[in-house]
Amino acid sequence: MATLCFPIAILLTLLHQAEPSAETSVFVLKGQDVRLNVQTNVQLKEDVDVLFWKFNRLDNVVKYPPNVTFKRYRGRAEFSERDFSLLLKNLQEEDSGLYDAVVSGNNDRNVATYLIKVQERVEPPVLTVDSVSSINGTCNVTVACRGQNTSVNSSCNSSTCSQVGGERRRAETTTVPPLSVYVAGGSIICNHSNQVSWAKDTKEFKTICLEKDLYKHRAHTHTHTHTHTHDYTHTHTTHTRYTHTT
After folding, report:
1. How many angstroms separate the CA atoms of 246 and 244, rounded?
2. pLDDT value at position 165?
3. How far apart are the first and last CA of the chain?
4. What is the set of domains in the chain, with CATH numbers?
5. Is 202 within 8 Å of 189 (Cβ atoms)?
6. How far apart are CA 187 and CA 198, in angstroms?
7. Please, which residues bridge with residue 169 across strands?
8. DSSP state of 177
9. pLDDT, tens digit, 9 for 90 and up, residues 106-134
10. For labeling, which of 17, 53, 128, 169 is most exposed (least CB within 10 Å)?
């Protein structure tokens, strides 16, 4: 009995290895095309085997032979008879899902599995300075990074940033990619990205701190000048009154 089970176990192992073990995730920018290749050697038995590309295990996209593109995908999908690959065109968010290549004959055999995720290009974020302070001669900057219905506040020095509080986002935007704030190359960078695109806004750290010092200097000069002018006016007025009385 054991001698019979051993070859069967080997056969099951070989069959398992011949099929893709898990889906391959592919991220696609909205409006772009993607080509899906079979993931194992495919040889179709004439007059027996038919290859299908399916969407979410239910909808047929194409079949071969003969080469047929099903109605919903006409103009949006192309099948290659040379290598059995599938070209999907102008992908939209509703095209996200599972795509399988299945050889159907005496037995069904999966020869490719892809999990397609269509994403929009991220919107450019906006980085603003909320406050600037100096502690023991070290400049500290609090910034707000905003983008696509989400925002994050961070406290930064010349080398690093730390988040202040949690990220705030609207309830309907749970799928919006997160923002990140960090220091690189002497600048504070607000980065907004997903798997297919990225955008950033930057502010030079030194410039922010210099503007603060310049503002303080101008404010101090203005206050000093105002006080001096006030004293002069008061003295001048007193002298005028004294002359008038005499």
Report:
1. 5
2. 77
3. 136
4. 19-119 (2.60.40.10), 121-246 (no CATH)
5. yes
6. 18
7. 150
8. P
9. 889 999 999 999 999 999 999 999 999 98
10. 17
Q: Are 162 and 154 in contact (CB under 8 A)?
A: yes
Four-point Cα dihedral 85, 40, 15, 113, nearest 10: -50
* β-strands 24-29, 108-119 pairing: parallel
Sheet holding 179-184, edge to edge: 179-184, 187-193, 198-204
pLDDT at 150: 86
Distance of CA 160 to the CA centre of its chain: 22
d(CA 213, CA 220): 10
Task: Report percent pLDDT > 90 for the chain.
Answer: 61
- The mean pLDDT value for 18-45 works out to 89
Rounded Cα distance, 212 and 205, in Å: 11
Q: What is the pLDDT of residues 37-83, one digit of tens each?
A: 999 999 999 888 999 999 999 999 999 999 999 999 999 999 999 99
Strand, helix or coil at 162? strand
E strand or H helix that includes residue 28: strand 24-29
Q: Whole-model pTM?
A: 0.69
